[in-house]
Amino acid sequence: MDNMTRFEFLVNESQSRASWADEATKGRCAGQRNSVAPAAWPPYSGPLMITGDFQTLTGRLEELTRLAGTPGRLEELLTRALDALGSTIPHDLVALLELEAGVLQVRVARGPLADKRVLSHRLPLERHPTLRSVLETRRARVLEEHHHSGDEGDPYDGVLELPHGHSCMVIPVFAGERNLGVITFDSRTCGLYPPELVSMVTVYGQVIGLAMVTAELAGALDRHRRRLQEHNRLLEDEARGGEDAGESLARSHHPEMRRVVDAARQVAVTDAPVLLSGETGTGKEVLARALHGWSNRRDMPFVKVNCAALPAGLVESELFGHVKGAFSGAVRDRPGRFQLADGGTLLLDEVGDMPLEIQARLLRVLQEGTLQPVGSDHTMRVDVRVIAATHVDLEKAVEEGTFREDLYYRLSVFPLRLPPLRERREDLPQLAAHILEGIQRRTGRGPWHLSEESLRRMKAYEWPGNIRELVNVLERARILARGSELDVELPRVRNRPRAGAATEGSVEPPAGDKLPSLVENERAYLERLLAHTEGRVYGAGGAAELAGVPPTTLQSRLARLGLKRKAR
Ligand SMILES: Nc1ncnc2c1ncn2[C@@H]1O[C@H](COP(=O)(O)OP(=O)(O)OP(=O)(O)O)[C@@H](O)[C@H]1O
């Protein structure tokens, strides 16, 4: 080995700071004459002389750099980093303290003095100005006895009894602008860390800082990747759900449903607008997706917009897009749903809730096939097949003046009405089996089947929330199931009145012989529902779940009827 590259830090009596020790109270540093280390300390076997060669130090640095570039668990990485450092620099304790909100907290500790108390040690920077200055100056330094003797004390006071004059070195850990923490080296031997070594180890702190940032970024990337994977899985499920539901639509045993599906298949291959009507949860969106899948546009986008859930001021921009600067907050050009659906299909869900002035613009787009993004002087051509869906009676809305007649005729070129589930009970077994297969695919659990008793109860039930309610009921049953047989529970409050009889949860006609209107019925049902859930709309057992509609739909209906949910 080349002698020029060797170094040697000899720790002898003249260099030692043993004279600082208060022999009467604390004992001296180990390795010195008359050492009186407490009996609890492990036997000390560290060298009094640090010898080595720069090749070894460079090797350590290379090892740390390699670690810094290897994403892995931070704890493991820091442990390996401290071991690599500790194998070069003698110590009784080497610890990495991470800085968080002004407090240094021991994250990893190695060496004979590293015990549980050390691992839970915390040091508020405001009480340790010396440590703070190490971070501020970003230079490693030796802490000498006068640093410990004032109010500040030794960093490990209270958890370790280190002798006066022991060796203590602090290395700042940082990366870029960020101060991440410190590494402390402590040894009960005096004068172990000479200035030459201290100036060399600063760079180790930097490399460990980089390792910490790399691990943090890798962790964030990993979380992001998992979120994306999850999102992808949901999208795939949703897409597959469309195809599968298309299949399940085709398997219906109900004559009216079969007629609807046959007609839908025929119209799918044209570009004619289709108007889907039916109670909430009857599968209008599912049929719209199936229509898209059966059409020649199947490889182009299917885009959905829920007209009831759009904030009033944003409907226009959501549908037709906007240009940069069109309004405050429009920081760049943004395409609307029409542009996103170009070449494909656009589902205008809850079209009956669209504001009148937007209806006029929509009509123009449908007639001319061109649109103008908000704030733009230019018109652009789009090729979009429109499917509209509604659970309200649009003809009545036209009569009441809330829906434009010309738009109604434009949209209802090909109307299809989906029957409610209570009118197609013969489809319950195949629908339930199809939904359960979907849940099995999504969760990797199952298979499940329905008990005889469950099927009997389901066939007797009124299903006010239609297929959405069926999905919720099955989801709940499979969560509670102990084996493969499902026992469904159906809420009593939801049953509809049979002719001439008011059941629990039904809405009784007002006094006199006049029957309540649909709106009166809806209002009474919603008031009762909110009273039942104490105003809670969201979550398990909330009004939206009980009604079998999405919370946003319920919110918009409550707003339309001027009903307020109670503050929680
Ligand atoms: N034929 C079917 N097979 C399996 N699941 C279905 C079927 N039809 C509907 N569903 C499921 O029922 C739920 C409601 O369906 P969808 O959203 O299409 O109803 P909707 O009539 O559009 O409701 P809303 O009027 O509230 O928008 C969804 O979870 C859907 O996957």
Automatic annotation (TrEMBL):
Protein name as annotated: AAA domain-containing protein
InterPro entries from the UniProt entry: AAA+_ATPase, AAA_lid_NorR, GAF, GAF-like_dom_sf, P-loop_NTPase, Sigma_54_int, Sigma_54_int_dom_ATP-bd_1, Sigma_54_int_dom_ATP-bd_2
Annotated source species: Archangium minus
Keywords noted in UniProt: Activator, ATP-binding, DNA-binding, Nucleotide-binding, Transcription, Transcription regulation
Endoplasmic reticulum is among the record's keywords: no
Pfam families: AAA_lid_14 (PF25601), GAF (PF01590), Sigma54_activat (PF00158)
Region feature (Disordered): 233-256, 496-516
Biased composition (Basic and acidic residues): 233-243
Domain Sigma-54 factor interaction: 250-479
Top-level division of the source organism's lineage: Bacteria
